[in-house]
Model the fold of this input.
Amino acid sequence: MRIALPPTIDAAAFAARDPSAMVLDLHGETMGTSWSARFAAPPGTDPSSIRAAIVARLAGIVAEMSHWAPDSLLSRFNRSPGGTWTTLPRDFAHVVTRSLAIAEATGGAFDPAIGRLVDAWGFGPVPVACPPSIPEIEMARATSGWSRLSFAATGAHLHQPGGTALDLSGIAKGHAVDAVADLLHDAGIPNALVEIGGELVGRGIRPDGDPWWVDLESPPGLTLPPLRIALHGQAVATSGDYRRGAHTLDPRTGRPIDTGVVSASVIHETALDADAWATALTVLGPDGFDLARNHGIAARLITEIGGTTCEYLTPALAAMLAD
Done:
């Protein structure tokens, strides 16, 4: 068993540990998948009120950033006329800010403005009878791409250049994980493990003094040495078409990826960044290894090319492995 430990340990979390605290589990559904929150409950914690707060928080994020809900703010932006500006609320503005930064850092391998391409391939809310033709792909590409967006951070105004559609499915779920963990912290619950659809963040420690242990998943049928992560002030996200079939597009070509990557996992301080970087590395494949290294990204790539399975660990992840 390989063990990945966080670069830093929060001494205050251990000093404030209550070994008698009960660990509670809450569950629900959101964003077409499930959510869970496991936390060390301080005395007097009301699980029903915590659950209601989580449900409301997640509903608010969906109402802003869902590509599937026709009345979401994102959907309304996608339908807005060219030349209009939309004022974004705080969550949406934060996700757009990070999306554009990661899009630039990855050379567009992660791109929040490929909604037209997603829809053309039938990966959005409306299924299609067959793959798009080359003219249809090029038509969707003509109005896609993060570089077409203008975002005025002061005032949080996002410009619609005309026909451009956002799709934040590669980052919004990670943001939601962070948001729920922040909600718990603000409610006086600093020790928690939050998960939405396989993206996780661990804050603080368990009552027994252990971190929140998570085993990094591997695609079915592949035999790899187990890798266990101590999620202590860390998040992890995994991207891979093995989960729900081939659905990952290369934003730079407008076509499905052909990199041989079956799984990309990223460990980061925030689930938002882990989510977006995992998507980007799935698109880039082994070619993204140097990029991840240069940005200090802790990542594992699993490729299957010509029947041969390879595992790549970036230096930042290798440095986390316990001797």
Observations:
- The domain at 78-159 is CATH 1.10.3980.10 (T-fold).
- The first strand starts at residue 2 and ends at 4.
